[in-house]
Amino acid sequence: MRPGELILPTAVALLFLLSGLSLTSGCNKALCASDVSKCLIQELCQCRPSDGNCSCCKECMLCLGNLWEECCDCVGMCNPKNYSDSPATSKSTVEELHRPIPSLFRALTEGDAPINMMVVSFPVAEELSHHENLVSFLESLDSQQQNVSVPGNSIHASYDTQENMCTVVYFDDCVSIRQCKQYCESMGGSKYRWFHNACCQCIGPECVDYGSKAVKCMNCLF
């Protein structure tokens, strides 16, 4: 068999499986598409537990990693989720970045906003009002770095929230969670928030929590 004859059926099969994501009512395509396609290409999620065949369940779970709970329904491993009462814009994933460069972030956000971005500043007191409603957190890929839950109000009691401003950057277009992290690292950001509709927010050094809970990406609002 020639190489081309093998590649074509594989590609067709992959396209068919990916198209099925849109047919699964609970599948969060913005969050899951990239990782699900990787696992499907490797044929690690081909069995069907609903039919009594769970021979690939462990391999599929390891492949999806931290996204297992959100994406297992996209590959038929668990029951579809109902997001009708919880839109993607109401959920977000956050992470602290390992090596922020505050001076770089300030330089890039002063004056006119860079192309394809929007810079937003607001009082730290307003930022702190959002922390109670965070939905999910991203576990760090670095085994030495563990994310912690957002602290309660008591830890900020001595912080002067009246004069300090939190500055964040929104990218106009939808991006993957990996791109969001990379972009924010390249800007010297301290943290990032990736909304589950694929809107990305980079969080500056003056922010004491996780920025704004509002989705403001110009071309990625829903």
Task: Compile the SSE list and pairings.
Elements: H1 3-19, H2 29-41, H3 57-64, H4 68-71, E1 92-96, H5 102-109, E2 117-123, H6 124-128, E3 136-137, E4 165-171, H7 177-186, E5 191-195, E6 200-203
Parallel strand pairs: 1-3
Antiparallel strand pairs: 1-5, 2-4, 4-6, 5-6
Helix pairs in contact: 1-2
Please explain how this structure is put together.
It is a single chain. The protein has 222 residues and is of the alpha+beta class. The protein has helices spanning 3-19, 29-41, 57-64, 68-71, 102-109, 124-128, 177-186, and strands at 92-96, 117-123, 136-137, 165-171, 191-195, 200-203. The chain has a six-stranded mixed sheet. The termini are far apart. Residues 3-24 and 132-159 have low confidence and may be disordered.
What is the compact description of this entry?
The protein contains 7 helices and 6 strands; from the N terminus they run H-H-H-H-E-H-E-H-E-E-H-E-E.
Using only C-alpha atoms, the radius of gyration works out to: 20 Å
SSE topology string:
HHHHEHEHEEHEE
- Major β-sheet annotation: 6 strands, mixed
Strand order of the largest sheet: 2-4-6-5-1-3
Unreliable spans: 3-24, 132-159
The tally of strands reads 6
Give the distance, in angstroms, between the N- and C-terminal Cα atoms.
46 Å
What share of residues is helical? 25-40%
Number of helices: 7
Provide the β-strand percentage band.
Answer: 5-15%
Coarse structural class: alpha+beta
The coarse overall form would be elongated
Mean pLDDT: 76
